[in-house]
Write a structure and sequence with these properties.
The protein is α/β, with parallel strands linked by helices and about 425 residues long. The protein has helices spanning about 5-10, 15-35, 35-45, 65-70, 105-120, 140-155, 165-175, 185-195, 220-230, 340-350, 380-385, 390-405, and strands at about 85-90, 100-105, 130-135, 155-160, 180, 210, 230-240, 245-250, 255-260, 265-270, 280-290, 300-310, 320, 325, 330-335, 335-340, 355-365, 370-375, 410-415, 430. Bound molecules: 5'-O-[hydroxy(phenylacetyl)phosphoryl]adenosine (DLL).
Length: about 425
Amino acid sequence: MTRYWNPEIECMPVEKLHALQGERLVAAVERVYANVPFYAARMKAAGLLPGDIRGIDDLPKLPFTLKSDLRDHYPFGTFAVPMSQVVRLHASSGTTGKSTVVGYTANDIAMWSECIARSLTNVGVTKDDVIHVAYGYGLFTGGLGLHYGAERLGAAVVPISGGNTARQIQLLVDFAPTVLACTPSYALHLAGELEAYGVTKKDLKLRIGIFGAEPWSEGMREQIEEKLGLSAYDIYGLSEIVGPGVSMDCERKHGMHVMADHFVPEIVDPHTGAPLPSGRKGEIVFSCVTKEALPLLRYRTGDLTVLHTAPCACGRTSPRMEKVTGRSDDMLIIRGVNVFPSQIESVLLTFGEVEPHYLIHVDRVDNLDQMEVHVEMTPAFFADRLEHLEETERRLAAGLHSTLGIWARVRLVEPRTLPRSEGKAKRVVDNRKIFAK
Ligand code: DLL
């Protein structure tokens, strides 16, 4: 029997859903026009007044919002409410030193929690479950997002956060959680470590996995299911929209249901921005039609996927997105953390010992992502200060850690030894091969 958290919305006839989206969009456009000078200026520049948006079919008239717009109005310049109404801030990576800051009102948090409660119900989680949340708690939206939604559902949450594999395994045995929420690569890593602690999957009570925050393939799904003895489901989201719970698999595993009454999806050509029809692969764009603090409209996610609008066998009528298979930009996701090569470059440029010639190597060792940055020394440093090599590598690694929030190994290489490119510089060698070509 299929369970729904909010059947009236989740199984709403498509025409009714479009009408609801349209009504909410009209109100959202009026709100941002009145309260966010950035949006008012953008709309004026496009020759638009709020009255020009009368329903959901008018959505493509609106200009796009980009990650760089959030950076240009850092930290709170795109908020639509005063700080007195904001109850939570989160942040994710920007393309350079400044992060992308997102705010939530109390209603926004309630809406997000409902999206997570729906997501969990989609895959059969109930209030009788115990949920081990190993997503990071903090500025990252994974931990707290899942946490509040699981509480809303009435399940028991183990807020263990990320890291410390020994303790994770101990609590997986002692607290006997039935649901595991973490990145898919960490789930595989945990599975690989069980044996070292004398634990087998039979010692665990896990039955459901809520995995996301990074791309993963159907092959990984099968491996995780086999190794942990659970059913693995994909959850998608991004901080700018709300965090996890923008879309989520159902038990059919036929694509992730978008919470389209809150986040209206479109697929556009990543090069031209032209809208693409259902079934075509392109960049997914979201408009937040109910959010109060940060109601981004036509936000370009950079994520490449396909949207399907045919109703699902589960009875839900919302559009479904396929697994995200790539990015339209150069963003990397390392252990669930978003990393832009430009962030790495901006750190390297603050060190006089190195040239801005670098190559980022990414690999997956024991199912954990590893990043190594090769950077050329200046000829002067190479000639005079070779004895300081290791210490400089450590300082560079610490500099990267303080900007990115994750550790990378840094290797100083001799001047003029990294490949030069005549066109666009190649900055990344990614050997993880998540989606076999
Ligand atoms: O990763 C939110 C999240 C937390 C989602 C926990 C799911 C579970 P950000 O740090 O802002 O937010 O990163 C968002 O991560 O644009 C995608 O590129 C990628 N991403 C998120 N979920 C998936 C997924 C969180 N299921 C960026 N599959 C997004 C593939 C994903 N990529």
